[in-house]
Amino acid sequence: MFITAIDLGSAYIKGIIAEQRKDGSLVLVKTIKRESKGIKKGEIVYPEETVKGLFEVLSIIKQFDKKCLRNIVFGISGTRVQFHLSRAAISIPRPDFEILSEDVDRVIQESMAIQIPAGWQIIHSFPREFVIDGIEVEGTDVVGLSGKKLEANVVLISAFSSVYRNFRRVTDLVLGKKGDFLGSVIFTPLASERATLTKSQKELGAVLLDIGYGTTGVAVFQDGRLLVAKVLPIGSGHITNDLAVGLRCTILTAELIKIEYGNANARDVSVRDKLDMSQYEPELSSQTSLKFVAEIIEARVREVFGLVQDELKSLGVFGKLPAGVVLVGGGAKLKGLADIAREELKSPVKIGFPNTDEFEKAHSGLAETDDPSYAAVCGLVLQRSDQTNKKYVARSFAHTPLDVNESWFKRIIRILRANE
């Protein structure tokens, strides 16, 4: 069986195909990466543009093997996706009090009875911990255990209806279906932490920061429990915009300078180091100080970590998480970033990489996944594998039919045909 994961990022659409063997092990067989369009701050804002990129990715997947389209998991992100905690309890109705998978489903379903703001809908759910007859159970696999009463503390992820509607329109249309959602949806910060954080890090207490182009995903753990997962409306693309303004150059030039010469720690850059701007744009004949470039970058980076600091203080865990901060995402590769994170967050900091020990690579050309920017899409595969292995990790509750406007549908089909 194949598992196909697709991460719709603000800068790139990334895809991974993995084959899951009968013993549950995973073999990574293909990666796809294409420029993303129509996505701002993690949300689909121009569906027609997003469809083009996603259609191209899915065409490559289909050419590899049509079976890969049967089991797809998508990452969903954006500031209008929210984290909730809910608690529910049920009685076990059987004389032997053995807990079955249907009991777990029932208690999770009961947890969804909480009130959420109008205009929002729950898109997936997973248990944080279980309690049987008043005793907390280690782990989340309680099937086969016995007890009269099963309680669950459940994490619910909701999305603003218009955000999810655009997401569904794009995925349904490109997959060729109008309503029956083929795959599942997982909140991207939870995918990133699944691929990166170890069990011991979560037990000690850790923060996962997924710094993307348009947003920064945050997941905080303490005593093995997820305290919060959210998305901040700021990412490495804001650094690019700042450089474009400060250096009076194009966005493309600013992005290249950030990648090639960027440093988030201005103290590490000499005032004597200069950059000839004409190598990027001939009309820019002046030289620019690389220290000035670093100062622009550092100012925005400190703002990002300041927002994270506020979040940790609100949880009462600022400076109190021994496993520290793990940085992933494309923005995590910025030189000097970890130094500023240590200063601002008063914690140990490391750059994280997907735990590819859980994958077997089919060939050496797949080494590109050993990169912080692949944390989310690798995590999507692992989350989907967990579901397939019947671990109660994340369940999608967003399978209601979607009413697709006919004129909108025809317009999308015209775009797809133009790109065939």
Automatic annotation (TrEMBL):
Keywords, in A-Z order: Cell cycle, Cell division, Cell membrane, Membrane
Pfam families listed in its UniProt record: FtsA, SHS2_FTSA
Biological process, per Gene Ontology: FtsZ-dependent cytokinesis
Localization per record: Cell membrane
Primary residence: membrane
Chain ranges of the SHS2 domain: 3-196
Iron-sulfur as UniProt keyword: no
Source superkingdom: Bacteria
Annotated membrane topology: Peripheral membrane protein
NCBIfam families: ftsA
PANTHER family in alphabetical order: CELL DIVISION PROTEIN FTSA (PTHR32432:SF4), CELL DIVISION PROTEIN FTSA-RELATED (PTHR32432)
Subunit organization: Self-interacts. Interacts with FtsZ.
Function summary: Cell division protein that is involved in the assembly of the Z ring. May serve as a membrane anchor for the Z ring.
Family that this chain belongs to: Belongs to the FtsA/MreB family.
Protein name stated in the entry: Cell division protein FtsA
Species in which this protein is naturally found: Candidatus Wolfebacteria bacterium RIFCSPHIGHO2_01_FULL_48_22
Lineage: Bacteria, Candidatus Wolfeibacteriota
Originating gene: ftsA
